[in-house]
Amino acid sequence: MTVLDAFSLAGKVAVVTGASRGIGRALAQALGEAGAAVAVTARTAEPAQRAADELRAAGINALPVSLDVTDPAQVDRMVERVSDGLGPIDVLVNNAGISIGRAALDTPEQVWREVLATNLDGVWYCCKAVGAQMVARGSGSIVNVGSMSGMIVNRPRWQPPYLASKAAVHQLTKALAAEWAPHGVRVNAVAPGYILTEASPVDQPEYREWCVEPAAMKRYGLPEELGPAVVFLASRASSFMTGSVVVIDGGYTLF
């Protein structure tokens, strides 16, 4: 096997949550280009179908699945549908997440619960449901999308629930990695910095002072720049890695 062969996902089945746009859409594209059949999930059917159609147009075997990751019953149904439609799941990318910026004293209980339910509970439910299948089979790779916000306090836009949820995702990644390593299942995470998406318009002038200038590379990232790292973590190229949190932030957290 050559070095490049180690990155191949040919014959593998991958699931990407929150894959209808932004980072999730780019990760689904990258996994598909590496050879995987990809199930793309979104909360409602229409955006999932649209993303799947785009991937199919690019020659990727894609399956749309509507999924609210905060609902364990829906997560179980997703695993069944993907297994029936594409085969046993080899790769899970937990990308679905939300961010609501509020100062702590202005954050209502509902916002706290909503952010934690999506960003942490959703990862937990998907890891458990897919991980059970992987552990039973003795192989699999899970990649959780954390954030550099799990390591630092973002300023000036306070967002305590988001920071707490992403720090928890990093620790959950390590906990599952340690527990499931003897069963042939690897669990890693990526921690992106500021990435330009529909939900994060960091290309606008008002963002430059606090999300571009502080980074060593003096720029924001693009969703497609995360794809190769996720393919690496999903594939045999990272066969001796588990429990790692790979920071991809343009050097933002260096200072």
From TrEMBL:
SMART domains: PKS_KR. Gene3D superfamilies: NAD(P)-binding Rossmann-like Domain. GO terms for biological process: carbohydrate metabolic process. It comes from the Bacteria. Residues 12-193 form the Ketoreductase domain. The keyword Oxidoreductase applies. InterPro entries: KR_dom, NAD(P)-bd_dom_sf, SDR_fam. The keyword Iron-sulfur does not apply. Belongs to the short-chain dehydrogenases/reductases (SDR) family. It comes from Rugosimonospora africana. This is Short-chain dehydrogenase.
